[in-house]
């Protein structure tokens, strides 16, 4: 029997959450190896020997090199398990979905993840209130644009009625926004996708609250 | 005659620089429409009506919707003009190259671009020295990891001897690092790719110094 892939995971990591959703959407059973970000385990020698960047997620599939970076892992999963696809077949539609996904993965999430918030509080000595406003600022700027960009082609999900890479990136970002008490009231298209996804087991089962407690 | 694609461009934007390299590698002639980031033109109504996110680059190809987000545009170019490809055909190698590209595009560049540096100096009141240290910190952390990840499979470029998406992301980031006087001495693999690229017209012609003065 083929060994199940091992996901190097942390329950609250948005990037790991994306990969959990992706694995679930493809129906790939996997084992979780928790890397505790709160204990700094990702920066330890043992994990760095596996992934020099010291970030989660990473995915080890038997017979393949360790993979890192959520978007690269999701691309590999999509090539390996083509059905259901994370991206539309038409190349203009694909560019639209990829653009929405990277609006989140490149322009929102990197500014608001743990290592950055720690740098603001530590070396920069930013107050808790100013840090929260920083968080809110990038969410608001990003979600406002995403709402406009998504609207014309959205359905039950961000693009049409089936989940795409854009939803895989959106749902963890919405979870994060709520955790920091950022209102998402002004983004009806994003909220609709979130509501749809909450009824889809692939998304629901990947939710941080359902991962093993640490 | 088919109209040439229009690139909404700014000479110093790393993301726009990536797309200039990509268009050149594919041998696609294009027209440039400069959006002056220094004058805030990207946030003006005229440009926002085209691209609600108010960022460069954007690419308009006749008969296709406007495209935004450099990685989405590069993916579209790669699908439309398959030769030479930006990514290896083998899916494990492809994941490796995509991982390196997103280490730059998701984990370095978003923290160091103009809108973020402006927020540090403005709302957060961070000193010039602390801002420069922030810049240096994310470059050093990212490049150290990238150097280790790239080394085993690097050739004249980051992956083998032909340019990939990883180099398309690296070269603008190296340009930026040097502009902020960040040493890249400790990253021989990155410097070798940079040296190779400097002798390749597709990269050299995309250099910010060769774009129209503003």
UniProtKB/TrEMBL annotation, chains A, B:
Enzyme's top EC category: isomerase
Top-rank taxon: Bacteria
Keyword vocabulary terms for this entry: Isomerase
Keyword match Isomerase: yes
Record-annotated GST C-terminal domain positions: 90-214
GO molecular function, one term: maleylacetoacetate isomerase activity
UniProt entry tagged with the keyword Nucleus: no
EC number annotated for this UniProt entry: 5.2.1.2
Domain GST N-terminal: 3-85
Cross-referenced InterPro entries: Glutathione-S-Trfase_C-like, Glutathione_S-Trfase, Glutathione_S-Trfase_N, GST_Zeta, GST_Zeta_C, GST_Zeta_N
NCBIfam families: maiA (TIGR01262)
Protein name from the UniProt record: Maleylacetoacetate isomerase
Species of origin: Sphingomicrobium clamense
């Amino acid at each position: 029997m083929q060994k199940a892939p091992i996901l190097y995971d942390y329950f609250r990591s948005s990037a790991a959450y994306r990969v959990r959703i992706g694995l679930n959407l493809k129906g790939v059973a996997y084992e979780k190896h928790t890397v505790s970000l709160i204990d700094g385990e990702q920066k330890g020698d043992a994990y760095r020997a596996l992934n020099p960047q010291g970030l989660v997620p990473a995915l080890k599939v038997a017979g393949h090199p360790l993979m890192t970076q959520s978007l690269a892992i999701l691309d590999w999963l999509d090539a390996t398990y083509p059905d259901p696809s994370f991206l539309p077949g038409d190349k203009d539609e694909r560019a639209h979905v990829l653009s929405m996904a990277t609006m989140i993965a490149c322009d929102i999430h990197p500014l608001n993840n743990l290592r950055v918030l720690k740098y603001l509080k530590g070396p920069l000595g930013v107050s808790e209130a100013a840090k929260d406003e920083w968080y809110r600022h990038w969410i608001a700027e990003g979600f406002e644009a995403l709402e406009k960009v998504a609207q014309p082609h959205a359905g039950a999900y961000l693009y049409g009625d089936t989940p795409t890479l854009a939803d895989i990136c959106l749902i963890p970002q919405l979870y994060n926004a709520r955790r920091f008490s950022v209102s998402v009231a002004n983004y009806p298209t994003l909220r609709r996708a979130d509501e749809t996804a909450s009824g889809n087991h692939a998304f629901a089962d990947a939710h941080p609250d359902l991962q093993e407690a640490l």
